[in-house]
Design goal:
about 140 residues; elongated; 5-stranded antiparallel β-sheet; alpha+beta
């Protein structure tokens, strides 16, 4: 007896953690950390650091950060994005002290029952949204 399990509106959240500023790091190293984090979200920055280190977008993103703050929302989702025809999700980025945190959420767009195997599709889609990059911390 092979039973198929179904879920209603399956979603997956991926959390990625990167170092924003390490003890004793130079401004250049902090800027490299910033680039490493934002290249997961901003396709324009998904190049080698040397090619984008003077990019206006990277400088603009730096203005969102607060040096001594414990909690700063860097990117608040304005709306759901279509990841695939039937998968919707969003990015949510924070600065927690000296750490960048990225949450990528993805789930099916309808409330119909879906097989548990759909989790693998959603997971692969979410990972492709950040170009299969890992966080430096976790």
């Amino acid at each position: 007896m092979n039973q198929q399990y179904n879920l209603i509106y399956p979603t997956i959240d991926l959390f990625v953690y990167d170092l924003q500023q390490g003890l004793g790091q130079t401004d250049e190293q902090v800027n490299q950390n910033r680039h490493y984090f934002w290249r997961k979200i901003k396709a324009d920055l998904n190049k080698d650091y040397e090619k984008v280190k003077d990019d206006d977008l990277l400088k603009q993103l730096a203005t969102l950060e607060k040096a001594q703050a414990d909690y700063v929302e860097l990117l608040v989702p304005e709306k759901q994005e279509n990841f695939q025809p039937d998968i919707a999700g969003y990015y949510y980025a924070l600065q927690l002290g000296d750490t960048y945190v990225l949450q990528v959420d993805g789930g099916v767009t309808d409330h119909l029952e879906k097989p548990v195997s759909r989790f693998q599709d959603i997971k692969q889609n979410i990972e492709s949204r950040i170009n299969h990059q890992k966080g430096k911390i976790g």
